[in-house]
Fold each of these.
Amino acid sequence: MAGTLELLAYDFFRILRAPLPEGTLDALIAAAQSASTSSNLQVWSVVAVQDPGRKQRLSALAGNQAYIHQAPLFLVWLADLSRVSRIGEQHDVALEALPYLESLLLGTIDAALAAQNAVVALESLGLGSVYIGGIRNDIEGVAAELDLPAHVYPVFGLCVGYPSADRPAKVKPRLPQEAVLHHETYSTAQEQSLLARYDERLGAFYHREGMKASGWSEQVVSRLRSAASLHGREALHDELKRMGFGLR
């Protein structure tokens, strides 16, 4: 399942728009709110989307990803500095730290921690999920669709639904632990050989699954070689400034 396990991109949802068990959303948000949050600021929010038309429009904004309108529930996780901004206004205090990049990072990290807690909870309920980073392709369009105020931006989406019984999710191999775990100091001494072996392992996995048998290094270069691969996210800085974030 997505989150702790990454899913292959096929046959994820067993029943299109099948309703989730009663109380599922409340349980997921309760789990999300138990996640750690820096200084207890809780600078995140989430919009639960179930309306078919709105899911279709969000899907179009996120690169026409079918999961969004197939899933019975689509969650848009937000970095939300608007709530604390309103508190400052109520107390007639200028929040000098708010326009700094650190505050935006706080909201982004808080949203990610909350979402991952929700994913763990939904998996315990027998459900599955798919993260949608494409929600950042057009954050102003998403903000307009969801009526987001200033100082709020969509970090990512999360489709929630039923895992396929016919084609269970496969675990995509990850980098070897030695490549990501460093002892005392950062070292790249064995990196080249580790990545070469991983390229072979991932390529073999794709081949078994009937997908293009590319290695991880090839994927990295292909994905990051050109700003065009960001699909509109190269404009995030300017969009965030227009949405009220200072980014100092």
Amino acid sequence: MKKFQRYQEIKNILNSYKHVEVKFLAKNFKVTEETIRRDLEYLESQNTLKRTHGGATLANKDDLSYYYRSTKNLDLKKLIASKALNYLKDKESIMVDSSSTALEAIRLLSSKSYAPKIITNSINLLYEFSNTNLNFISTGGRLNKHSGTLVGAQSIETIKNYYTQAVLLSCNTMSTDGFSVGGEEEGLTKKRMLQQSNLIIMLVDSTKILSNENAYFKFADYNNIDLIITDNTNFPESIKKAIEYYNISVI
């Protein structure tokens, strides 16, 4: 594989997973770790990524595009969504963020006879489920076309007006420090959402559990979360301690 081809493949991996490790890339491309480090140095000079200890993360502070989020790790998201359904089916009102994992959960919910009120800042939920039994309330706000998300002061003001029986959230990264996303405005919206219910559900697929790596904006600590739903409960020891300390349920 030529150098410029590796550059593009590294970009593709970062767009999908937000973080790459030198060892993984070296094995994947069948080159030395030193070659990968030089690749990462070059891409950092182009403002494509930010090097970290043992790897790199996206340099871009914006959220990943909805296309990437909705098509990656779809099998894990469907598994998580099926688990989440048991906690949603008896709820009359649910607040939902714009994450692709939450969308999978609402997709399952829409196929049932339930008809809860759903407050969301996701234009993708509004579009896909407009002809279902679900009753939607849009937060309004400024549209982030890249992520299909409504953000800003108007969105947050609308969220403040509603208290729901459950809040459904996801994140870009779950680490020892808490839960974070790539964009500040998206993070502020999620931060307000988790104040609007007594049941805060975090949907996290195992690729987002990175122990010591964080996305750009932290929106939640472990003491904010009631339930974590994931595809793999084999957490790093430091994260396991935080979950146990704050008595968070995990399925």
Amino acid sequence: MMKTEFLKYGLSILLLGYISGCDNYEQKIIEKNIYVDRQSLSLFIGQTVQLTASPTDGTYQYQWSSEDASVATVTSNGLVEVISEGFTNIVVSSGDLFTKVPLTAVVRVPLEDVSVSESFLELIPGGKKTILVTYIPDNANDIPEYLWSSENPDIASVNIAGEITGVDEGVTTIVYRIGDIVKEVMVDVAYTRPFKGPHILSAAVPYELPAANFDLGGEGYAFHDQDANNHTGNDNYRRNNGDNQSTPVEIEGDGGNNVGYTNPGEWLLYTVEVIDEGEYLVEAQVAVPGTGSFHIEVDGINVTGTIDVPNTNGWGNYTWVSTPEDKLTLILTEGRHKIKYYFEGGHNFRSLKFTKK
């Protein structure tokens, strides 16, 4: 008898739990709402846009309205048309449910042009510069998509923010396109730059290039000096002309008279621009109480071989070395070239002279 009562009691508890569980499930509230495919609108006068309300399974019959029909109207199927400047809410409702979509209407001001902060840019490899773009007119609000690109990413690259990065030596063009508007930025990437340049070679007149006017760029790029100490104690010429990287090079005289205290293996680099291509005789103005020698490289290639410097019987007794003429005749194409003066034997060096043949 006790066993039977216990079984009835247990079944009663299970049944009560089942009924309670069913009650909880049936009492769960399903939230009702209307959803629109756009949360807000910002449109120009005259524009139209189709709004869609959901659910779309026929559960609700939707009514569309505008709180200010002078700003924007809406059809019975949700097509919105902007009438005038201002603000309103587009309302979609069904029974006591409704959702509002805020709408701001503005006068369309088309983009007419743009200006860029730089049209020509000089960078070293690894150097960066961001180009700023200004809209014309400055209150333009109808802005097309834009694109930055590089004509040669191996020389300079550009990202979506207009930041240009120098990659390797050379010249290329960075292009900014927005709608039908195109702007270009010429980018010159180089490790060195002409000092007191440009140094232009042409058929018009011989060009004399002072030895002290080697490139800007510093040790290992514009020059190589084996001794970091300046034995003249004078670097005024370069510093006075904006170069703080060339202290090791011994330039004699505040006016850049000559380069002295040279040793074998040292060199100086000069960037020149050739207007008239062809053959140029290059002469070196040098002095040494003994013997010295040099060679000249064009764009990294030794084109002269060893050239002897004669004994001038004094560090201040200068002479022009112009022979052998066949070795000292350079064939230069139009455009930019890097001329390296390489000391094979120490001597004082005053200038180079280029004469079109």
Amino acid sequence: MNTPVARTAADLGPARYTWGGDEFLMVEVSEAMSLAANFRVMAIAAGLDADRPEGIVDLVPANASLLIRFDPDVLESTALLEQVKQVETAVREAQLGKLQTRVIEVPVWYEDPFTAEVEARFREGYHQDPSGTDLDYAAAVNGLSGRAELIARHHSQPWLVSMVGFVAGLPFMFQLTEQQKQLEVPKYLSPRTDTPGLCVGHGGCFSVIYSVRGGGGYQMFGVAAAPIYDSAAQNPDFTDTMVLFRPGDIVVFRPVNQDEYEHIQTQVDAGRFHYRMTDVEFDMAASLADPEGYNARIKEALQHA
């Protein structure tokens, strides 16, 4: 299921540029997701944002590409393309591999009753293995002993938020571990029309947290205990933004039981819940050289937050 991907900036060539109508420019750094590709995308977005030309409406970084929306009445397409290419060339030649970011701990109730109820309604005709659970299926296709080992593998190593989208505030996360150790699971055969809010799902090599209840096709592993999208700014982490995650964040999942889940829910309802998080500098080269050792240092920094 694994395909070769770029491991370092040197493995990546120049970006590919394509237009989407009169208002969009797509910068494709690579055809496959990798740390190197995602870092280059974030570096290009940061470079453009630091010296933002008048007329750029939005910058939307994704796993291995950057979508730029612009106003053609303010910024000519040729001028935009020239500036973006200059930033992309500078980033490529610098081979940037460090990122100032945050580590955020996310409490998760694995094997929860909410996803179990939805799973029961969407087995026949929707799932590859109607006889078991999503965790059972994910463990089997990854050659693991069972759901306990699958859950341990899921929360044992941190995840990088490579992009945010699909619905408001939903993070796509790429696990910071060797490629052969990454969990990979096919999506449902047919998408569900229901997914619990804050469901922790997995499709391909990506984990997500569904910010709101709705349709979805990723395998369901559990539910996060606190909101990641808060339009009412009820809790302190949302006073400046209604969306918790941004590309480049590092997520550490922490398993909780029912009692702790319900305690966190009480804090959320009272407007007192605060995510444990801290600022860090993420070094891509150090992570690739010693993933487990570097991840241990990331998690240690979080413990001091």
